[in-house]
Structure to design on (130 residues):
């Protein structure tokens, strides 16, 4: 919400004067201007979701019941740490890191520079200077 409130209202006024519809203003003004903040929020929420521990731990008394359906990866890691199975705990944490890194990179790549502005800038420089 803070990102949307941070957009200059003059942009919407200018688009309205130019005859843009509300749908066009949303997709061409609002979404591109809040993309950096949306990327940050999505990545931090993704990491928080993958590392969820407290809510299922409290609700299921650490058992993940019924039938381990509520066990998260961090709860599984914690169970191996308490059973002194450090090799498996290390492997789980490494896999969790790799999954988290891949998903964060995927979100970052899809949220940044999808409109090809870098390519347009390069083309513009070539035509002006060369």
């Amino acid at each position: 919400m803070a990102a949307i409130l941070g957009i200059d209202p003059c942009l919407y006024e200018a688009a309205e004067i130019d005859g843009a519809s509300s749908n066009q203003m949303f997709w061409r003004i609002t979404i591109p201007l809040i993309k950096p903040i949306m990327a940050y929020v999505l990545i931090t929420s993704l990491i928080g979701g993958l590392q969820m521990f407290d809510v299922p731990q409290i609700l299921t008394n650490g058992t993940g019941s019924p039938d381990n359906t509520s066990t998260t990866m961090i709860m599984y890691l914690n169970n191996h740490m308490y059973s002194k199975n450090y090799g498996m705990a290390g492997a789980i944490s490494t896999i969790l890191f790799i999954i988290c890194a891949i998903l964060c990179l995927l979100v970052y790549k899809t949220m940044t520079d999808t409109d090809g502005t870098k390519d347009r800038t390069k083309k513009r420089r070539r035509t002006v200077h060369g």
Notes: Residues 22-50 form the longest helix (29 residues). The helical segments are 2-5, 9-17, 22-50, 54-59, 73-82, 86-111, 117-129. The two ends are 43 Å apart (CA to CA).
